[in-house]
Amino acid sequence: xxxxxxxxxxxxxxxxxxxxxxxxxxxxxxxxxxxxxxxxxxxxxxxxxxxxxxxxxxxxxxxxxxxxxxxxxxxxxxxxxxxxxxxxxxxxxxxxxxxxxxxxxxxxxxxxxxxxxxxxxxxxxxxxxxxxxxxxxxxxxxxxxxxxxxxxxxxxxxxxxxxxxxxxxxxxxxxxxxxxxxxxxxxxxxxxxxxxxxxxxxxxxxxxxxxxxxxxxxxxxxxxxxxxxxxxxxxxxxxxxxxx
Length: 244
Prior knowledge:
Elements: E1 2-7, H1 15-25, E2 29-36, E3 55-59, E4 64-70, E5 76-77, E6 87-92, E7 105-111, H2 119-133, E8 138-144, H3 162-173, E9 177-179, H4 180-184, E10 194-196, E11 199-204, E12 207-212, E13 219-224, H5 228-231, E14 239-243
Parallel strand pairs: 1-2, 7-8
Antiparallel strand pairs: 1-14, 2-4, 3-4, 5-6, 6-7, 8-12, 9-12, 10-11, 13-14
Helix pairs in contact: 2-3
């Protein structure tokens, strides 16, 4: 079972991004940000079995928004108050690949919005909204948080802001989630998930996947995909977590 998160950078026409992540990694779930509308995609995606039914998408504007894609399930889109298009949530039940398939699962694709205040405050507001929605369900939360989502290694020159550490702790303690990348890559300097214009080489690490702690024993790997191909499509690198 594979879960991927990817900010597709809408001005690159993210059809190519979708094709690359689906064809090369065959993920069961994709959390997308800055994605074009599902019906914007050309063949063969529109001809694939039920493509538009298996992706829940909400727009930020006339062009792009966030999405959650399922490979084999038709998710039920949740009605979320506020943050329209920046956050998309879905719910599925009896998913065979889940460690606890009988429990309903909610999956949230987050893109912390710009222009609505400090990112830490905005992400906390999004988490409060999710807390009210979860209704006893297991939750997966991932996406582009626009802040550092993992604890930096002591060898790194960049340091965590206290507010970011508090959000990491909240995801762990309040929501009972593990950080897939940090869990799979312990005692390791953070991998770059964003090439920011201010410093293209700095290891900005704002994209992540958080899953229930009960899944920890099944986490096989979590990698940040890098290289010329991904660099040419978006200023973000995809993050892919694999479970056994």
